[in-house]
Structure formats: structure tokens, C-alpha cells
Amino acid sequence: MADLQTERRAAARIDKVFRVLIASDLHGEQWHIARNISGTGMFVEMAEPLPLRTKVVVRFSNGEDEPSICAIAKVQNHYYLQYSDADGLRALCGVGLRFVRFMPEAGAGAAGHALH
Q: N or C: which end of the chain has fewer CB within 10 A?
């Protein structure tokens, strides 16, 4: 029987919860909760996930709700997770983002052509 704990991902993950500002051409800007980040992508909790293959600008917060690092990413997967805690059965949904590239200027807004 295969070991169920075997990690299939090639990139190491940091299991940290933090806020990110997600911007897209069609959906504007919204703050979301991100977690489980690696050098290639991350999971972002979203009550209404963006469509697959949507390109977004991800602005990472410096802790003061001021973006300090930016990346272009693409919605790669949709997830719906159920779990149990002290309050009983709970659920959350979100998206898996794959980083396409990081912006050259920390905190820089996307140029008009950056999402295309």
C-alpha cells in the first residue's frame, strides 16, 4: 500500500495564513485570505471563485493593508474543502493560483498590458 503522507508537490510549501489583494480586469480588487504558498503558487480562499484561467494581479500585504510585493498569477484549480472542528462540520472554497511572474517593482500596480 502506498504511503498516504507522501508529498507529490515539487515545490516546498509554507503553511501560513495572510491577506492578499487580488485584482482582475472583470472583477476588480478584493482582499482575500491566502495560505499554503510556494514559489510556484498558492491557495486563496474565495466565497465565489474566479473562473479557471483568469489572470490576476496578486498584491501581498505587508501587515498594514499596504501591498508590498506583486505577482501575476493564473487561476489553475477550484477547491471545495470540508473539515470538522470544535464547531462541527465546516467548509470553505477557493482557488489554486499558479504564479506566472513577479512584478519588477514592489507594490507596483499592473500596467495596462500586464494581464494580457
A: N
Asked if the structure places residue 107 within a domain, the reply is: no
Q: What is the pTM of this model?
A: 0.74
Overall number of domains in the chain: 1
Express each pLDDT in 13-60 by its tens digit.
Answer: 677 888 999 999 988 999 999 998 998 999 999 999 999 999 999 998
Beta-bridge partner residues of 93? 80
The reply to whether 113 falls in a domain is no
